[in-house]
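INFO  loader      accepted 1 record
INFO  loader      residues=486
INFO  predictor   begin
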Amino acid sequence: MDGGGVVQLAARAPMSSPSTTSSLEQQAKRLRFSDPAVETRFLNERHAATLLRQRAMAAVALLVVAAVGWNDARISGARAPEFIALALQHRFFIVVPAWLLMFLGTFLPENRRRSEWINAAATVLPCWGLALMNWHHSWYFPNGGWPGNVALDSLTVLVLSIFALPFRFVQIAGVTLASLGGMWMFFALTLPAAQTYGVNLITSSFVGIGTAVLVLSWWREKGERAMFAQREHARQLAAQLAVSNDRLARLSAEQAEFMTIAAHDLRAPLAIVRGFAEMLEADKLPTAEARQTALAEIRQQAARMLGLVTDYLGAHAAEGRAAEARLARLDLAGELREASSRHTATAAAKRQRLALLPLPDEKPDVTADASLLGQVLDNFLTNALKYSPPDATIRLGIERRAAGWRAVIIDAGPGIAPEDRPHLFRKFGRGAARPTGGEASHGLGLAFALRLAEAMGGRVGCDPASNGGGSVFWVELPAATEPVVA
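INFO  predictor   done
INFO  writer      dumping tokens
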């Protein structure tokens, strides 16, 4: 037998830790969560949270642009009447419709991608429209301070977009480039040489505006992602707490059920033990044979009670990771023979027989823990003897499977009803069948066997016997191709 590594019995869901929060906060600084599901949840929550703000901004901007445009046209019209029509056209045919587009878009069915395109258009188009208006302004009023108006208008629109719209940093960078780059190119290509100074002012102001916009956008998104990381951590803790509460409730229910079962199953054997003990104490069993019978009955009832307690503690030990699987290369046929020999006396007491079926030609070596595998086989054999009638034959065999070897134990009992099979390997999962010799049945042993098999990387199951009577309980373990290395 080769020395093996150690495998813990039952894995638990990983608990959230401070490192989880730290990781999310580091990702927030990079403006990207590594988990796509977390990233999508952040973007969707951000979009939903700013919906009302988008509507308010679009409505206010629409009204302000219209009012300022009308007032600007009225003042400028005193100096150049023809500018009135141009100013109103720029605002009411480009800027105002862009804000209206965004306002109406917020009432469409939720679609984050569509909203992002609408918001981008509602940012770029006002910048271009205001640039076109200032371009005409430069022709009518060359010395009217139009470069400052261009800078102020573009800065106002972009800052509003940064703080009111759910743009990501990459998106606001693209929108800023499209807005400022398009405006600068338009001025550089269309203004006369006499306005070179104005173009230079626009160039320097756009560099500052672009830098400020990107810094503010990064700062805002980083803060929002950091707050989301804290909320996400709180959600994870709440989910883990809910799981823990559910598990505690389940364990509490199981303990209550066990107490009910224990009270029922222990009452009768305790009464028998007490009765025989009182008879022995009162010397009411005069013959040696009667005293031996009483002692044998006391021993049998004590073993029955010990079995109940052992099964319960074993199932909870597996549930609580109290055991370890020390994996090694094992001969499954040898383990099955040893298990059979351990139960020969019990079988003989019920006039039953254990028969080993012909073994396969290939040696059935598996990777398993000898102690845990023995417990699984003992559990299956105990059940087979318990539910098979006197004079029955319990068959033991080994089958080759694609991923390993399977030890099978075929009883001669009444079989398992189809509706009982889904609950068979759960704690306290008992079917309609009852032991044939008055033995106790607690519904814990098979749940214990399942946990032990899973700890060894194996599986357990139950199938109906091919001859129509009895059941086939099996444990399947991975084949050992090489010795297990610690």
